[in-house]
Every structure is written in C-alpha cells, then in structure tokens.
Amino acid sequence: MRLNGLAVLSNAARTPFVSSMVLCTCLLISVVACGPKQGGAESAQGATAVTSKEVTYSSGSTQLKGFIAYPAGSKKRPAVLVAHEWWGLTAYVRARALKLAEAGYVAMAVDLYGEGKHTEHAAEAKEIMMAAISNVEESKKRFEAAQTLLASDPRVDGSKLAAIGYCFGGANVLHMARFGDNQLKLVGSFHGNLATQHPLEKDVFKGKIFVAQGGDDSFVPAEQVATFKQEMDAAGADYELVEYPGAKHGFTNPKATELGLQNQLPIAYSAEADNASWARFMELLGAL
C-alpha cells in the first residue's frame, strides 16, 4: 500500500515490493551481544539539558570506545543502542545518540570496530569492516559489551531497550533480532543490508522490526528486499518496511552527498526521507 507517497510493507500489508536496486557493498555481520569496562569524561550539551560522555569498555583483549548521551534527572528511561555505518564511530552516529537524548532517551553509539576507528575513505572503510566481520564470535561479543553496558546504566529502564543501525549497523541490529535477542523490544534498520544466512525463525524474536529503505538505493537489489519480506512473513514477524521514493543509500547522513562525491559512490542525503523515517521510528519507540 502507499501512505503519503511511501511504499509500505509489513506482515499486515503484503503488496509485492518492486525496485531497481543493485547489490549492497555494505556486508552484513552476525551479532548477538559481553562484559564492559567503563571510563571517559563527561560534557554537558548546554540548554538542551543533555549530558554526553565517552566510554571505554572491552571485549576480550579489544578496547572499545563508545559514546553515551542522556537527559538530566535520575528518572529511569528507555534506552537505544546506535550502530554505525561502515565509516565507523563518526560524529554522525554521536549526533544520532544526542538527538535521542534530547527526545528523552538514554542512547549509546556503539563501537563495532575497536579503538573507535572511523574514516571517510571507502577503501579504508571496507578494509576495517572486513577485519571486523572476519571473526564472527568477536563481533558478537563487541555488540554484547555495549548492550550490557547500556542496560546496566542506572539511568536506564532495562525492560525498554531498543537498537538502531545504519547501513553496516542496520545489518547488525537485524541480526540481533534474528538471533533472538529479546532484551531488545524494537530494532530499526536505516538503509541497511537485508540479506542473511541465518533467517529469522518463527517465535524467535518477539519485538518490533522497522526497516527504512531508499527507493533509489543502488546497494540493495529488489531481490534482496523481496527475500527479506518473505523471511519476515514466514516467521510471522511484527515488522514494517518503508520505501522512501527517490532516496539513495545513506539518506539519513547529512554528509552522505559529500562522502559520495569524494569516494565516487552513489550515496546522498535526503532531508525528506531522513525526517520521515526518523519520525516513524520515534513513534514506534514511544510506544514501548
């Protein structure tokens, strides 16, 4: 069906999904979720009454450097893990955590690469990402380290935990659902890879799944989206897939157009798709 020009797919709306998208270079990763070590300095965010701090934790011998943001007050709040694009833990993913904190949530930008690695060069991003996915067990532990840290924060209501991810990070949070992480009540993937070798099974994940895709995303082919829809339907998942017409890969990142030109990649920011997808995710988050 179409809502305000958007193509929407869910287990309640089974219209075939059609697009002209090409295979994603953003490789996916299997993630489930280990024990953190915390550190870092705090900094206030001025009139917004939001506080943020860098945190250092670990997975085995790998030091991880994340970023937590939260509103003022001692009230326990729902919390959101934010998984980065293949560019790594950039200012962009920190900005998303701050935006969530300004909306009243505790949010943590997670480090999936170790040492807070990040880059603006596609060749380097691919190299770092490949290193991260070459050890699936370690990748699982890195996500779990962040999840454990956030859930144990005294400001967090551990019964209301969600995760969002972008591109590479979108694949990560979808796999959290596929591997049955029911501590998460909601996962959201924005312009993420949808393919998997571990399809969601019936009754494995009881939370809500939200997927936001660009209608002109040349990294995710129509076949991949159709297969994802079949996977979700077969599992009886509570999911929603929205296509934003004309939006390219990376449409939520304000720097995507610049990064696309710099790296000769077909990615671009779309304020319209960014705002619409964020608004819909926030509606779902508010319903937890």
CATH architecture: 3-Layer(aba) Sandwich
SSE run: EEEEEEHEHHEHEEHEHH
N/C terminus separation:
25 Å
Dominant shape: globular
How would you explain this protein's 3D organization?
With 288 residues, the chain is an alpha/beta fold. The protein has one domain: Rossmann fold, CATH 3.40.50. The chain has seven helices and eleven strands. It has an eleven-stranded mixed sheet with strand order 1-2-11-10-9-8-6-7-5-4-3. It is globular, with a radius of gyration of 17 Å. Mean pLDDT is 85; it is low at 1-5 and 10-47.
Short description:
This protein has 288 residues and is α/β, with parallel strands linked by helices.
Features:
alpha/beta; 11 strands; 288 residues; Rossmann fold; 25% strand; globular
List the helices and strands and how they pair.
Blueprint: E1 2-3, E2 6-10, E3 42-44, E4 50-59, E5 62-71, E6 77-83, H1 91-102, E7 106-109, H2 122-133, H3 136-151, E8 156-166, H4 168-178, E9 184-190, E10 208-214, H5 222-235, E11 238-244, H6 256-263, H7 271-286
Parallel strand pairs: 6-7, 6-8, 8-9, 9-10, 10-11
Antiparallel strand pairs: 1-2, 2-11, 3-4, 4-5, 5-7
